[in-house]
Amino acid sequence: MNQEDAAAATAHPRIGRTYHESDAWFETRPRPRAGSPNIVYVILDDVGYADLGCFGGEIRTPNFDGLAARGLRYSNFHTTTMCSPTRACMLTGRNHHAVGMRCLANFDFGYPNGRGSISHRAATVAEILSSSGYATFAIGKWHVAQVEETSPAGPFDQWPLGRGFHRFYGFMNGSTDQYYPELVEDNHYVAPPARAEEGYHLTADLVDKTISLLGNHLSLAPDQPFFVNLAFSAGHFPHQVPRQYMDRYAGVYEDGWDVCRAARLERQKELGIVPRTAALPPSNPGVAEWASLPEDQRRVAVRLQQAYAGFLEYTDEQFGRLVAFLGAAGQLDNTLFVLISDNGASVDCGPEGTTNVLRRFNQIPESTERNLADIDLIGGPRTFTNYPWGWAQVSNTPLRLYKSFTHGGGVRDPMIVSWPRGMGRQGEIRHQFHHVVDVTPTVLELCGIAAPETMKGVPQMPLHGTSFAYTFDRPEAETRKEVQYFEMFGHRGIWHRGWKAVTRHQRGVSFEEDGWELYNLDEDFNETRDLAAERPEKLREMTER
């Protein structure tokens, strides 16, 4: 049979009465190109710009810092300011309104931009990679399916296995108890493998399951690269962690958030994360000076921050076990890690913090006395804590405001990218402006995979992100990003070629009456000099854009 006949037989195998008159044909499954990296997305939750050690924090994160030492840190990376939309952007490479995730997956507004799930017109990176021959695993938080569709009855088309992942182990909604989580394996709910009294903690369980799944995969299909979406709980409330991790921060926070914030800025300057000229903006509204607080309130605040710091250190330690496993398996050098936080630090629970966030959400007033009565339970299974606003401000040093706002404290977050085999430079910092929609386009470029025009018969919208692979070996290159918008709860912002216009929306006030601020971020890293009055023509250009 000549080559033409062989090609014809492969495309249309001949089937006759017997095998003598038929052509055997075996389907060839797609395979990634030779040398394609394993890919691991690591998503931290509500972790501020300054929390990790390699971004200036005093919290011990040696494994995250080690990832940065083997890769690059990005000082000018941005997200959407809330968890579900950031995850939708990261998974699809498209803007969150376009894919139907304007806000949280908890809300379906009835409009195309806010359905609480990801449009099938926007294939996830898992769908793209799995159709290209990758093994795909989702571990941890999902929170991109409508809440009413997360029961055991489904429907399941927006669950991880319905969006391109082969296996899933984690929780479907925005948060869960670290000792008694609501766990799902694949498409069914399961009980945790142990109890808190037996030493169980969700973070360790997630890493155990990741190692187990990857161990099985590597032993049976060692040549097939994998994609893991590992979404930790830390540092979303509840801040729950074994007491010994909290005790490691005894004496660290007693000087209060004003001192801690200033110390973090100095470390950021020494690391080169923040310009030497950067100054702390005034405290955010509602954050009292530490020295003005009553002693009992300070005691509770310190303990709540110890729980947060211990929780993040514990998460770093568990992540270290995954890194060690990949190293032992000979996979670490060719694994591309992208680590981010999904938004800035949280102010969900008021200026005093709480030992039980459910009080806050049920509009039960907080009191220092109530929190003080629970002080020795903080971190354990009988409390559901979140810290005060002052510590959230520290987490976001030196940025303004917090999660849910479109100022820097809500949208500017840490990102670490590491791929030892594919990166010629390591341990450096990149300052180009980029956004979470740019992550998946970068991965597809590095893997040599084109975004599909259709997926399972559904026409696809184009990617909105801009690959940042060019930054790997070009530290001084100008950003290739042109423009990026932000919106949440009516708060709006837009960045264009170094300039940013931003506004805080007041509920009930016409959008036309919002007061806009204008910043030249190339010269004013953390939005401290409002140029709106000096440059009205520039502000008008930006807001019209």
What does this structure look like?
The protein is built from 15 helices and 17 strands. Strands 1, 2, 3, 4, 5, 6, 7, 8, 9, 10 and 11 form an 11-stranded mixed beta sheet that branches. The protein is globular. The chain is about 30% helix and about 15% strand.
**What general outline do the C-alpha atoms trace?**
globular
Provide the structure class. alpha/beta
What is the first-to-last residue Cα distance? 63 Å
**Helical amount among residues, as a percent range?**
25-40%
CA-based gyration radius? 24 Å
Strands, total number: 17
Mean pLDDT: 96
Helical stretch count? 15
Largest sheet: 11 strands, mixed
Share in β-strands: 15-25%
**Unreliable residue runs:** 1-9
In short:
The protein is α/β, with parallel strands linked by helices. The protein is 28% helix and 15% strand.
What are the salient characteristics of this protein?
single chain, 11-stranded mixed beta sheet
Write the layout of secondary structure elements.
Layout lengths: L2 H9 L26 E7 L17 H8 L1 E8 L4 H10 L3 H4 L25 H7 L3 E7 L25 E5 L11 E3 L2 E3 L11 H19 L5 E6 L11 H5 L9 H15 L23 H34 L6 E7 L15 H5 L6 H6 L15 H7 L12 H4 E7 L9 E3 L3 E2 L3 H9 L6 E2 L2 E2 L23 E6 L2 E6 L2 E5 L12 E5 L15 H9 L1
Parallel strand pairs: 1-7, 1-8, 2-10, 2-11, 3-4, 3-7
Antiparallel strand pairs: 2-9, 4-5, 5-6, 8-9, 12-13, 14-15, 15-16, 16-17
Helix pairs in contact: 6-9, 8-12
